[in-house]
Design a protein that fits this description.
This protein is of the alpha+beta class and 124 residues long. It contains 4 helices and 5 strands, in the order E-E-H-H-E-E-E-H-H. Helix 2 packs across helix 3 and helix 3 crosses helix 4.
Length: 124
């Protein structure tokens, strides 16, 4: 039954600016131990800044699909705050653009994660 006299404190439902995205293996979908990204969400100031920048760019009606995809990847990379536990040829990966470009399966996970507000809300 609904409690009509109850009030809800919405403060606990304010999304965090960023959250931990635990990466999943692209085939098994199991969480990869100690491999994660800190990612800004769609309610963050960083996300709004990236979208504002994108909106201000003049439209290039001659751009091919690859160019558009590359631009979108670069924007998405600006939402990656930190990279943890990922190496390439034995070296830590520090460049989010390179990470999302070279590993489309990680790009996909970031893209989906960023847009799901539930990922940035406190867990009950």
């Amino acid at each position: 039954a609904a409690c009509w006299s109850c009030t809800m404190d919405l403060k606990g439902l304010s999304p965090a600016q960023s959250a931990k995205l635990e990466l999943k293996h692209p085939v098994t979908f199991e969480v990869i131990p100690d491999a994660y990204l800190m990612v800004f969400g769609s309610d963050s100031k960083q996300y709004r800044a990236v979208m504002t920048e994108a909106a201000r760019e003049p439209a290039d009606k001659t751009a091919d699909a690859e160019t558009v995809y590359t631009k979108a990847t670069e924007r998405l990379a600006k939402l990656v705050a930190e990279i943890h536990g990922l190496k390439e040829d034995g070296k830590d990966i520090a460049d989010p653009v390179k990470l999302l470009t070279n590993y489309p399966w990680i790009r996909d996970q970031v893209d989906v994660f960023v847009m799901r507000r539930v990922n940035f809300l406190q867990k009950a």
